[in-house]
Design brief:
The chain contains 14 helices and no strands. The chain is mostly helical and 399 residues long. The protein folds into 2 domains: 185 residues, MFS general substrate transporter like domains (Growth Hormone, Chain: A), CATH 1.20.1250; 192 residues, Up-down Bundle (Growth Hormone, Chain: A). Helix 5 runs antiparallel to helix 10 and helix 9 packs antiparallel against helix 14. The longest helix has 32 residues. The radius of gyration is 20 Å and the shape is globular. The two termini are 38 Å apart.
Length: 399
């Protein structure tokens, strides 16, 4: 079985899992409403998806190093499918909340395995590998909610509610990725184990954080995802202030999504020209400009802002993934991906809380996020530049 077939299997599997996840999450909220849940319950439901990922991302990454990314992906797919089935058939809020916790865990296990697989199998061209992986995920984010929405609208009553049908469709999307698992098990290599690596989980993490540039890169990657979350949360408020319709907001987000998909397909070419460090700084800089502009412009200006955010936030994610993976020592790539996901969850939790406490309006929200991103980019500027060809070989950053 060829390596190329294994790479395609990984991309399809990643797209199907993210399609399933983005389908199930909103449908779970609708199901909570059907079961009599109020805003507090919906808030708990949203938090339940992130509880275990925050605590277990790094340990799951260590398991990927020990047993191989493919086996971790298989485990995550099984957990997600079982949890999705439980959520689709839930007849009470406690069962739905419990299923949501397991759904978050299954999704986490899958993405740690997927990112670890790229880090191990694509060591010579990490930027292209992570660019393709995140592009597959972007396609899944488009397909999943649409498929679940159509299915829910077409639900004809009976024993299954509209939301339950939507959850079932999302679960089926993830479960269908089982066809990709056999090629993954056969082609994705296990990380090389090294005798000189510490066995202690805390020692491995401490060693990674000691790599020069690791901390600002982790912070930048986390802030990028937190900024995207806040964009989805506060763009409707911006639209309400300007009388912009809901459908127009959808088109603005679609513009961002399309630019994100396109830039991720070309990210390795950018790295070959300017180097990864410069590419990260430029992408974060574009996102900062987009966030500064958005609250003070009208509709046409918002289109430009969304284009900047699509390119900036879209490129920064695979670039920071590649930097973290390349900085990790052989045999610790899974742990590095887990550490990165932990940093992401912390940023996605801390930044909204900080913004909510300090800001007094939409302008304050977007400018605070822009300021945080600018500071993280400033920290990266102080690192020594890599070579423009960094994306073509496995070059470790200065330690």
């Amino acid at each position: 079985m060829t390596r190329q077939r294994g790479e395609w299997a990984l991309l399809v599997q990643a797209g199907l899992v993210l399609a399933g996840y983005t389908a199930v999450r909103p449908m779970a909220s609708y199901r909570a409403i059907e079961l009599g849940g109020d805003n507090t319950v919906i808030g708990l439901l949203a938090a339940s998806f992130s509880v275990l990922p925050l605590l277990l991302a790094y340990p799951v990454g260590r398991r990927a190093d020990q047993f191989g990314p493919a086996r971790v992906i298989v485990s995550g797919t099984v957990v997600f499918t079982v949890a999705g089935t439980l959520a689709a058939t839930a007849r009470s809020l406690p069962v739905l909340l419990g299923a949501s916790v397991l759904l978050g865990l299954g999704h986490l296990i899958c993405i740690v395995g997927q990112q670890s697989a790229v880090a191990v199998a694509r060591a010579g061209n990490l930027d292209r590998g992570f660019g393709l992986l995140t592009s597959a995920g972007a396609v899944g984010q488009i397909v999943g909610p649409v498929a679940a929405g159509f299915g829910a609208d077409a639900a004809g009553g009976g024993d299954w509610s509209a939301a339950s049908v939507g959850i079932a469709i999302g679960t089926a999307l993830c479960a269908s990725s089982v066809v990709c698992l056999r090629p993954l098990l056969r082609t994705v290599p296990r990380p090389r184990q090294r005798a000189d690596l510490p066995h202690s989980t805390s020692q491995v993490a401490k060693g990674m954080l000691g790599v020069r540039g690791m901390t600002p890169t982790l912070v930048s990657g986390g802030l990028v995802l937190a900024a995207l979350d806040l964009l989805y949360t506060f763009l409707p408020a911006w639209a309400e202030e300007r009388g912009v319709s809901v459908s127009t907001v959808g088109w603005l987000l679609a513009v961002r999504a399309v630019l994100t998909l396109l830039v991720r397909l070309a990210v390795d070419r950018v790295v070959r020209r300017v180097g990864r460090r410069t590419a990260i700084i430029l992408s974060v800089g574009l996102a900062v400009v987009g966030l500064v502009l958005l609250p003070v412009v009208g509709l046409l200006g918002a289109v430009v802002s969304m284009m900047l955010l699509g390119v900036g936030l879209g490129a920064a994610q695979p670039l920071t993934m590649a930097w973290v993976a390349e900085a990790a020592r052989p045999g610790t790539q899974g742990a590095a991906m887990g550490l990165r996901l932990t940093a992401n969850r912390l940023a996605q939790t801390a930044l909204p809380v900080g913004v909510g406490i300090v800001s007094t309006g939409v302008v304050g929200v977007f400018w605070m996020v822009a300021g945080a991103l600018a500071i993280s980019a400033g920290a990266l500027v102080r690192l020594p530049p890599d070579q423009p060809s960094a994306g073509r070989r496995n070059r470790h950053p200065p330690r």
